[in-house]
Each structure stands twice: as structure tokens, then as C-alpha cells.
Amino acid sequence: MKQVLTIKHPEWKSERGATLLEMVLVIILLGIALPSLLAVTGLVSFHASKNSVVEQAVQLAESKMEEIIGWKMKHWDWYKHVNGIQRTENLPNGFQRRVQVRHINGWGSAGMEAWEVTVIVEHPELEDGYVITTRLTRYY
Predict the structure, then answer these.
(1) Given phi > 0 = left and psi -120 to 50 = alpha, else beta, which region is 31?
(2) DSSP codes joined into one string, the chain
(3) Is the dihedral of CA 43, 49, 52, 53 positive or negative?
(4) Is 131 in contact with 117 (CB distance < 8 Å)?
(5) How far apart are CA 107 and CA 114, in angstroms?
(6) pTM, whole model, 2 decimals?
(7) Closest to 65 measured CA to CA, from 135, 124, 126
(8) 119 exposed, middle or buried (CB, 10 Å; 0-12, 13-18, 19+)?
(9) What is the C-alpha separation between 6 and 140, in angstroms, rounded?
(10) Are 121 and 60 in contact (CB under 8 A)?
(11) Which pLDDT does position 19 carry in this prediction?
(12) Contact at 8 Å (CB) between 79 and 106?
């Protein structure tokens, strides 16, 4: 068996660094992966923001409708003044809330008198806004 004798020069070091080719490959991979990662992060952030706007619109519409129903329960002659609740409100953070009232004669099979109350909440980020509607009668 033959032995190989290796002689190391005292000035040679056994440290190994990255070659120029390896550095170029890392830069290319980062150039491809980083923009993709940032685009996905931006998209997730956009959708989270839009969901927040929708949640706020729902809350604003429902709270106004609850206020209207509470007002109706508190006042026995509410139907005489129901048109007074129609208004448009400019709310913080770019929201706008409108209340519309429409009188209906002969609603349902009993032909009852009713008032259709619609609450509309709009925001620049919501295409169609958020709308809830209820019908009020004098008998409930």
C-alpha cells in the first residue's frame, strides 16, 4: 500500500469562501423570490384591509337599523314622523350612511300599511356598498 504524503505550506489556509459564481446565483435567486414574496404580502394586506372595511360597513348599517327599531318601539305614533329619519351622514374614515323610507299601501296578503326602511352604507373601497332593509308596520 502506497502512502501519499501531503505537504501544506504554512501560508496556505484551509478557509473556504464563496465563489463569484455562487454569489451571482444567490443574487439571481433573491431577485426572483423577493418580488414574488412582496407581491403576495401586498395582496394579503389589501384583502385584509377590504375585509375590515366590509366589517365596519355592516356594523354601521346594523347599528343604525337597531337605532331605528328602538325609536319605533319607544314612540307609539312613530309612523307620523317616520319620514324624519331620512338623512345622509358623512362618517369618519370615508364612510357615508343614508337612510331611506318608502311608504307601502297594501303590503302582504292582509294589505297592511307599511314603511320600508333602507340603510345604505357606502365607502370608496366598496363597489356596491352595504344595504339592509326592513319593513315596519303599526302593529308590532
Answers:
(1) alpha
(2) ---------TT--------HHHHHHHHHHHHHHHHHHHHHHHHHHHHHHHHHHHHHHHHHHHHHHHHHHHHHHH-TTHHHHGGGG-EEEE-GGG-EEEEEEEEEEEETTTTEEEEEEEEEEE-TT-SS-EEEEEEEETT-
(3) negative
(4) no
(5) 6
(6) 0.66
(7) 135
(8) buried
(9) 102
(10) yes
(11) 86
(12) no
Q: Which position has the grid cell 433573491?
A: 30
Grid-cell match 343604525, residue found? 64
Give the tens place of pLDDT for each residue, 47-77: 666 788 899 999 999 999 999 999 999 999 9
Instruction: Return the amino acid letter for 135.
Output: R
Cell 352604507 belongs to 121
Q: What angle do CA 73, 90, 122 make, to 5 degrees?
A: 85
Average pLDDT value for the chain: 86
Q: Which long-range contacts (CB under 8 A, 24 or more apart) does 32-39 make?
A: none
